[in-house]
Amino acid sequence: MKSTKKIPFSYLKNPLHLIATGFGSGLMPKAPGTFGTLVAIPLYLLINNFDFWFYILITLAITILGVFVCDYTSKALKVHDHSGIVIDEIAGYFITMIAVPFDWVWVVAGFLLFRFFDILKPWPISWLDKNVHGGLGIMLDDVLAGVFSLICLHFIIYII
């Protein structure tokens, strides 16, 4: 269960907290995960036209960085998985969009699929969310939600 304890705005002065909160989008009082995922869209648009392997490298770098900044920020807040920490949503959306041909339909579909899996947390996502702790635990459920979304999105694009 994510904590909704308010993050002091002053935390954004620290670059690691700024990254963890998705450049402050996680401070939204309602649906911070959705706002974090919305921040991922323009970032995705910036890197979408790069070479496939560069996109993978950026996605991997954000995911690894996310483990560390999530751990750092959650320890500073003294809360395991604060709802304002949304770098995991950004990484999850980037994973969702791997090798997806650019079209606004797929950008929106990827957003909706990722939010669906991130909010519902079907097994084994829910198990990871409850049983893996620290920065890795915060990131891992969203990484898997991104993988589920990626599979569904590719199925829709290429099979249906």
Task: Output the keywords.
7 helices, 160 residues, mainly alpha
Characterization of the model:
By secondary structure, the chain is mainly α. It has one domain (about 10-160). The chain has helices at about 15-20, 30-45, 50-75, 85-95, 105-120, 125-130, 135-160. It is globular and about 45 Å long.
Write the layout of secondary structure elements.
Layout: H1 15-20, H2 32-47, H3 52-77, H4 87-96, H5 104-120, H6 125-131, H7 134-158
Distance between the termini: 35 Å
Taken in chain order, the helices and strands follow as HHHHHHH
Q: Helicity level, as a percent range?
A: 55-70%
Rg over CA atoms, rounded to whole Å, is 15 Å
Percent of residues in beta strands: under 5%
Number of helices: 7
Give a short synopsis of this structure.
67% of the residues lie in helices and 0% in strands. The chain is an all-alpha fold and 160 residues long.
